[in-house]
Amino acid sequence: MIIGIDISQIAYPGTGVARYVKALLMNMLPDKSYKYHCFFSSLRGTIPPDIISLIKKTDTKITKLPIPPTLLSWLWNDKHIISIDHFLPDADIIITSDWTEPPSEKIKITIVHDMVIYKHPETTTQKTAWSNDAFAPLPNIAATQKKRLHWVQKESRLILADSYSTKKDVVDILSTDGQRVEVVYPSVMIKKPSRADLQRVQKKV
Predict the structure, then answer these.
(1) What is the structure's pLDDT at 79?
(2) pLDDT under 50 in the chain at which residues?
(3) How far is the C-alpha of 62 from the C-alpha of 52, rounded, in Å?
(4) What letter does residue 13 receive in the DSSP assignment?
(5) Which stretches within 65-140 are classed as H helix?
(6) Which CATH number fits the domain that encloses residue 127?
């Protein structure tokens, strides 16, 4: 079995999401039970050297999509076109992360970290703006996440939440069956997940 993993957030370090995905990779890739195909999207961003070293050491495939996140969000979250399967034809399962939800005919597992855009919308960006410092548009985070979560609710076979509080929010706000949501704590990702952790997730895929 080949597992495709969106590691785009690692190209934008300094966030909890980036740390979560990085720890996930560091624990999953050395597991010889599966093969992996990582992918990320960025025009200028790069993957940290320690992750590149791990990818090479574990003979893991990696594909870079030279597409800016704002354009990819429009293609995948808004229009929901151009399947990720075109870029990862070998993958049996696709794990998506925090920003975009690509269409796919494969089994999709999605990571959801919180539902802040619904519970505390005042803390997120509500409109698109231009940043002179970055010389780039600052995206409308709330709109982007809501569009992504629409497809998560509709298409994902399994949703990974990083706490029981987040799981409850996903179930309540997205009207999702609790059986589709599995809690995997960030702390579990720091060490190697137990066999029970892995079997619990595998049974739901």
Answers:
(1) 96
(2) 135, 190-191
(3) 9
(4) -
(5) 69-73, 116-119
(6) 3.40.50
DSSP output for 91-110:
-SEEEE-SS-----SSEEEE
DSSP assignment, residue 47? Answer: -
How far apart CA 109 and CA 156 sit, in angstroms, is 6
CA-based torsion, 191, 195, 197, 199: positive or negative = positive
* Element spanning 170, H or E: helix 164-173
Q: What's residue 104's pLDDT?
A: 96
CB 28 within 8 Å of CB 40: no
Q: How many domains does the chain have?
A: 1
Residue 67 confidence (pLDDT)? 86
Going from the C-alpha of 85 to that of each of 71, 124, 140, the distances in angstroms are: 18, 31, 27
Among residues 147, 124, 18, the alpha carbon closest in space to that of 70 is found at 147
User: Containing domain of residue 99, as a range?
Assistant: 2-204
pLDDT of residue 69: 83
Chain-centroid distance, C-alpha 70: 16
| Per-residue model confidence (pLDDT) at position 190 | 47
pLDDT of residue 179: 93
Cβ within 8 Å of residue 40, ≥6 positions away: 6, 7, 8, 10, 11, 47, 62, 63, 64, 65
> Parallel, antiparallel, or unpaired for β 136-138 and 129-131?
antiparallel
DSSP β-ladder status, 158-161 and 93-96: unpaired
